[in-house]
Design a protein that fits this description.
There is one protein chain. This protein has 556 residues and is mainly α. The chain is 39% helix and 5% strand. It is built from 21 helices and eight strands. The chain has helices spanning 40-50, 73-78, 103-121, 131-156, 180-197, 201-204, 214-234, 240-257, 302-308, 316-321, 351-356, 391-396, 408-423, 428-433, 435-441, 449-454, 459-470, 477-484, 487-490, 502-505, 541-546; strands at residues 83-84, 283-287, 313-314, 363-365, 368-370, 403-407, 495-499, 518-522. Strands 1-3 form a two-stranded antiparallel ribbon. A two-stranded antiparallel ribbon has the order 2-6. A two-stranded antiparallel ribbon has the order 4-5. The protein starts with 39 loop residues before the first helix and ends in a 10-residue tail after the last helix. The relative contact order is 0.13. Residues 7-29 and 59-72 have low confidence and may be disordered. One of its GO terms (cellular component) is cell outer membrane.
């Protein structure tokens, strides 16, 4: 049985009365510091609160805080060309304005302050607690501080770097933004400390499953460094080689640790109860929900609220990314045949497509036990995601299935991409270590340098394709387009959906079609991306008003 982290804000006392626009202006209330920070139990209780900031299947509201934070899978995927919702996103259509407040900004500073508080005060437990124990919880705090700063710099670029708790009189409340290079250096320092001081997954075992391990710190470091290495490379700034080397080394350390492996069951079951817990060595970081409806931390209704109701629908662009079993894409494979019925789309394809997309005959929900075809009233693309669907969850609308946040599969594709970007090539041996293990899971032919050359394939594109399909519906695609500097090319394209199978779709909803009979969901004229502005998000206007040394990002 899986272990549940009991989340609590005990001892932190930071959140009451926080205005939404303010960062670090947090009164010290609740339990007195004079009666806390005395034992391992105190340190663990304080650290547990940090886990409430891990991404969720929905939005959360921190205790004592009026706004929600943490975007859902749906939010991030519909910003990209992988998915479309019931209506267009103001990110993908270029219509958003600089906001007065932004919970993504404020909540990450709340997390950073909570982490700083633990880092500063954990040593007070030294009289009764071993230094190794203190170091462990400081390491957890430094991991989450790195998590918060990565979320900030990924969106906003340069932001204030605050490494201590502040009060109303602190001069650092009006500190200017630090350069992103300095922030990444601090992130690496924090993650290195975490990797050195945290237990291995084996040491954590079942009892502490869900807590951050040393391989979690290394895996996240690989993710962070790949982002900055490729972003600096393709946006022409900084030291891309430095970051790519960091990513390669961190990912390889995880691989060499032998602490993780791909899940032995089906790809689909990774997001089901069968794939939960310590027995699934693919999971490196998870957001825990609970053991059952009677023993839970929190629940979600992601399936019904997001998939069935059409808040996130796969696009033709994503569907076309899945290879045929001969290892060739849809525009090159001789296995491709024009579809006649909806199930033809899945014939001879990477089996991960069938695990990610609903198809006729799949279990769906109690009132409609078997999926037929996506209703265009809700699923505007004529496709529906399947990856996280569960009939029992539809019944209860209170799922306790955990959310995988960082999987070993991501480490493998990160290693392959970082290695290729660093060296301009990748050996067949490294392809077998990474990409081909994932292709094998999908029943797809191996990728080799000879195969790519013989079939006119670009190795960089094939590695990126593998990342896209393996991590589909997990919120990566938008940020990948940002770091590759291809958002300006891909996001303004029209959104197309499934082939229109008239006999199956019927005429319940009005539909526009392309000349070759694909559903036209959104024309290119309604999708905009300004490369001079949109590669960074706008800083919240109220934050700039509070701190005159903050400078708004260009174009906002």
């Amino acid at each position: 049985m899986k272990k549940i982290l009991k989340y609590t804000a005990i001892s932190l006392g930071m959140l009451a009365g926080l205005p939404a626009c303010e960062v670090e202006r947090l009164p010290e209330t609740a339990i007195s510091d004079q009666t806390f920070w005395r034992s391992e139990g105190d340190l663990k209780a304080a650290s547990n609160y940090l886990y409430t900031y891990l991404p969720t299947f929905g939005t959360l509201t921190p205790q004592g805080y009026s706004s929600t934070y943490n975007v859902t899978y749906a939010s991030e995927d519909v910003w990209s060309d992988d998915a479309f919702g019931l209506a267009s996103s103001n990110i993908s259509d270029g219509s958003r304005l600089a906001p007065a407040t932004d919970a993504n900004y404020t909540a990450n500073y709340l997390l950073i302050r909570a982490a700083n508080n633990i880092i500063e005060k954990a040593p007070r437990a030294a009289a009764s607690t071993a230094q190794t124990i203190i170091d462990r919880y400081v390491a957890e705090a430094r991991f989450f501080r790195a998590w918060g700063y990565y979320n900030l710099v990924q969106r906003y670029g340069d932001v204030p770097l605050i490494l201590k708790t502040l009060d109303e009189t602190s001069a650092d409340l009006n500190a200017p933004a630090s350069p992103r290079a300095a922030i990444f250096d601090q992130i690496y320092q924090d993650l290195d400390f975490a990797a050195q001081k945290l237990p291995t997954p084996t040491t954590l075992g079942t009892a502490d499953y869900g807590r951050i391990s040393n391989t979690a710190a290394l895996s996240f470091k690989a993710r962070v460094a790949l982002f900055e290495g490729t972003r600096s490379k393709y946006h022409s700034y900084g030291e891309p080689t430095k970051h790519l080397k960091v990513s390669v080394d961190a990912a390889k350390a995880v691989i060499d640790s032998k602490q993780h492996d791909l899940y032995a069951g089906s790809y689909f079951d990774i997001w089901q109860l069968a794939g939960e817990g310590r027995q699934n060595r693919e999971n490196i970081i998870v957001r825990q929900y609970g053991v059952s409806l009677t023993e839970r931390v929190v629940t979600h209704s992601y399936y019904r609220g997001t998939l069935e109701n059409g808040n996130m629908n796969p696009t033709k662009s994503l569907a076309d990314s899945y290879l045929y079993k001969d290892g060739l894409p849809i525009n090159k494979s001789p296995l491709y045949k024009a579809p006649v019925v909806s199930t033809d789309v899945f014939v001879d394809r990477d089996t991960r497509m069938s695990d990610t997309f609903m198809k006729k005959g799949d279990p769906m929900m109690t009132t409609k036990p078997i999926f037929d075809i996506a209703p265009l009233v809700f699923n505007k693309t004529g496709f529906m995601f399947r990856k996280t669907s569960n009939v029992d969850d539809w019944n209860t609308q209170a799922s306790t299935i955990d959310r995988p946040i960082l999987r070993y599969a991501e480490v493998l594709v990160t290693y392959a991409e970082a290695l290729y970007e660093l060296n301009g090539s990748i050996s067949d041996a490294d392809l077998d270590l990474t990409v081909n293990r994932l292709r094998q899971r999908g029943g797809v032919a191996k990728l080799t340098n000879t195969f790519a050359t013989a079939n006119g394939l670009n190795m960089r594109d094939e590695i990126r394709r593998e990342r896209r399909v393996e991590l589909a519906q997990e919120g990566f695609r938008y940020w990948d387009l940002i770091r590759w500097k291809t958002a300006e090319v891909e996001l303004p394209k029209p959104i197309l959906g499934n082939y229109f199978f008239k006999a199956e779709f019927g005429t319940v909803a009005a539909v526009r079609l392309t000349a070759d009979n694909y559903i036209l969901v959104q024309e290119a004229s309604f999708r905009k991306f300004d490369p001079a502005r949109d590669y960074l998000w706008p800083l919240p206007i109220n934050e700039i008003a509070l701190n005159p040394l903050l400078v708004q990002n260009k174009g906002w």
